[in-house]
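Team,

Forwarding the record for the chain on the shared tracking sheet. I've put the sequence and predicted structure together so nobody has to dig through attachments.
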Amino acid sequence: MPGENLSRDEARERAALLSVEGYDVALDLRSAVAESEAEQRTFRSVTTIRFRCATPGASTFADLVAPSVTSVVLNGRELDPSAVFDGARIALDGLAEENTLVVDAQCAYSRTGEGMHRFVDPEDGEVYLYTQYEPADARRVFANFEQPDLKAPYRFEVTAPEGWTVWSNGAEESREGGVWRFARTQPISTYITCVVAGPYHHVTDVYRRGDLEIPLGAMCRKGLARHFDADDVFLVTKQGLDFFHEVFDYPYPFGKYDQAFVPEYNLGAMENPGLVTFREEYIYRGKVTRAAYERRANVVLHEMAHMWFGDLVTMKWWDDLWLKESFADFMGTFSMVEATRFTDGWTTFANNRKAWAYRADQLPSTHPVTADIRDLEDAKLNFDGITYAKGASVLKQLVAYAGRDAFLEGARRYFKRHAYGNTTLGDLLAVLEETSGRDMKAWSRCWLETSGVNALTPVVRYDETGERIAELAVEQEGAEARPHRAVVGLYRPQDGALVRYARAETDITGARTVVEGLAGAERPALVLVNDEDLTYCKVRFDADSLATLRAHLGDITDPLARALCWSALWNMTRDALLPARDFVRIVLDFAGRESDIGVLQMLHAWVRTSLVHYAAPEWRATGGRLVARAALKELRAAEPGSEHQLTWARFFAAVAESDEDFAFLQGLLAGTESVEGLDVDQELRWALLEPLAAHGRADESVIGAELARDDTASGKRHQVRCLAARPSEAVKAQAWAEVVESDKLSNALVEATIAGFAQPSQRELTAPYAEKYFAAIERVWSERSIQIGMDVVSGLFPSLQDRPGTLEATDAWLAEHEGAAPALRRLVLEARDDLARALRAQECDASA
């Protein structure tokens, strides 16, 4: 990573000096299928850049990360590659007003998901390629000026092996003799250019709206073709295009719309215009719940929103990353709820996405939505819960504050005013002020330019009878008191349910706000602040409301209100205000009645975190037995063949803890045990096998036999995770060496090995690796790609060694490495904060 970083100041200087007129990029990918391993490592990349210089005679640099450069020609003048190329930059001196740069390089295929990723399918030996660049890995594939505000049109030409198909951002213009040529793109940034190449399975369709016709394509590996439900992908795609054309009043600007589902992908998806890439796990190999299809639809629409927010109009620098990610995150749910079958998307948003935001906003690395991004390493780490989920939550609040019509009209003006350009926060605020008539600068200062989350607590005073409200106020905690537009809901029992009988929508400001309109209302059983989830805050409860939730949470009939209560209780558990065992017991009492499958899956994840990290160590075994028994009971009681049955089956496998539990899992795998309606398909088989491996009930031969049943790329990932999960000193040593001491594993197998390595039942077995972790991470960070560095530093932090000594070791490393890369220190600080939070929660639970 040293030498590859780019600072904001450098980018500003270069943007002031240069304007780019266009790129011609020629890639020769035939080496991807070469016979020798040496030939398979690199490919030829020839780039021609035409650009202007505002100060003739000035110097600058182009970006390229490559093993070698064959030639560099600037304005017809041959430059010595050994003199001008340092492995990351090409020095350019004596620029003219108009310049042409031609760089002929040997670029490296990637196994880390960064740049041109090369994947060999173990099922059939076929090779698949795709590119992934954000924020700055296009320079691993072609020479360029790698910053978002130097936009330009691109023409790609790709020479590919016989029998392959190639796609890029532009439409295919010709293919002859294995050479594929693509149409010139609109001006776009380097990080959203894209190439996908290989023997992909390809399906086509067409979207039509009036005179507009958009060719649609969807592709995946041949081995996944039998599982690929492209019709559903196209359905959501067309619904999204209808919605965005209607509300944005700006036609989709990039011609065709291809969507490629690719292997070993680091992200959920990437918004390359005309060629969106997704992780192939969104193609489901077995039975999944409606929540999985909802997640996929949300991602499809999130990336589609980027065609306008991010691709058509792009932030100048990564400080304003939120200008694309926050909007796409918000618009993904907004469009999904209004245009698709997933009409309960805001419940998922409140329960799932906001949980990510609340966690991120309480870390020491929290930052304003519009952030201070000094360099590319900062940018890489800022694809976080603040930029995505908090930003989206704040935009949801903005819609309530400014009004839906004003918000959407502001978006329409923003697109038309800045099409194919770059913007900052001020550009967006200007149009929103025009359309809403409100002071957007004051709103921005409160919500976009400060960090931290407020907690809102209701304080109720009753009249002398004790049966009616005399005054209801909301108290606000937090470093900065923000204005909140919120709904306060009052709930009471009715015919066995807990229903809302009164609401007041109000502006909450300052430390204490009296809510108008609720005085005189009948005494509630539950007061829910932020009912309807209009604002971004942590919700607290008065004593009566908390008692009601302990006894009757499952009686709340409204799914969104119920999800908000679950979320609030989880935040209280994380904040050591509610003992973990109490949270677990409330979930066990009412999760069986939870109708929203996405909420149920989130509850299961939270219960596992409670048991592993937040429960007092002396209660873990008791809690584990309670959870396992309850999970098995719910599995047997669930409707046969239902998604709830599948969800409880997976949860039971994850929390199984007794010989009886493991024998039952083994029986399900062998077919000697069954649950009516439960289809133990291949994906579920792996879910049942991993806990058996982790508890020494499945050895290498058993895992190998399962791989023989599923000798695919997905099966290989599962196998690697199960192998690393086995309770053996030798196994842990091998897994550690493969991830930390070697770079032979691909990104997907690094991720799988890390996931298997740290098992909650093996705390003592992995304890020796805490010291090894702190000795290794700075070296790993310096030697490996930033993606692998992030995986290792976050994934192998000794969080299971949850004792004060681990906290002290973390503090010692931070004190001794003040000069370490800021991005590395940030990851360690975040892990330290999680550990400290866990210790506080354990203390709270021990006192229960």
